[in-house]
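Exercise 7b. Backbone tokens:
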């Protein structure tokens, strides 16, 4: 299944990646796209060919940095609409000072919300990847977040798509090449807040994945950078 083995290692090393397991994960993503070319999502006129050295380089430039980067809320770049504050003051009785504070808090809340999906994928990856699954990091595999290859199976590829909430818009998707449907799952129900871990598509992981585990992962993942940000603010 895994071609271009020597070149894959060279490309990985150019990204300072030497771990054999990590290189094999990237190789599996390339192999999946080789037989499911419609699932390659790419901006630009020419999509990279996962069977060519040049294509492997382009995919590696997305895959390895995405896995190695630190997900962190971005700084707000938009200016809040002052009319919203007026509505809140007139209708709900907030003071001007309160709406000023709320504007900042809302921006922070939106920035935090925007990274929850990425943190969810990272958490699931910590549980699934030791068992042969691969997190398709880099945003170039359309509608699929995790894949697994089982050579002895008649339909060797299994693909899973995860969403944070049931009201999140699903990416348009279809079955992979061998006709096996993409397994879809979401973390929480928007109207009730109830979690959906008991219905994770791969049953063997239902006792290993949980809302408690996810929240603990998020706290631990963000803890060190948060301490650095606090220290920087105090220093300033």
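Sequence design result:
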């Amino acid at each position: 299944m895994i071609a271009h083995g020597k070149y894959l290692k060279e490309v990985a090393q150019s990204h300072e990646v030497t771990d054999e397991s990590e290189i094999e994960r990237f190789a599996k993503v390339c192999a999946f796209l080789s037989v499911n070319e419609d699932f390659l999502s790419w901006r630009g006129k020419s999509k990279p060919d996962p069977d060519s050295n040049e294509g492997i380089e382009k995919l590696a430039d997305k895959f390895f940095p995405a896995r190695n980067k630190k997900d962190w809320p971005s700084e707000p770049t938009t200016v809040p609409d002052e009319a919203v504050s007026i509505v809140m003051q007139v209708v709900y009785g907030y003071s001007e000072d309160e709406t000023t504070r709320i504007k900042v808090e809302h921006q922070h809340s939106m920035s935090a919300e925007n990274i929850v999906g990425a943190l969810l994928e990272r958490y699931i990856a910590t549980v699934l990847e030791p068992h042969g699954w691969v997190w398709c990091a880099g945003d170039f595999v359309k509608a699929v977040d995790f894949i697994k290859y089982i050579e002895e199976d008649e339909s060797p590829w299994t693909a899973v798509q995860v969403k944070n909430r049931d009201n999140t818009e699903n990416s348009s998707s279809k079955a992979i090449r061998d006709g096996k449907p993409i397994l879809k799952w979401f973390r929480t129900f928007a109207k009730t807040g109830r979690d959906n871990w008991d219905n994770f598509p791969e049953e063997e992981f239902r006792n290993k994945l949980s809302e408690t585990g996810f929240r603990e992962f998020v706290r631990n993942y963000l803890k060190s950078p948060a301490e650095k940000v606090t220290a920087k603010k105090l220093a300033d």
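Instructor comment: The first helix runs from residue 5 to 14. The chain has one domain: 5-71+107-235.
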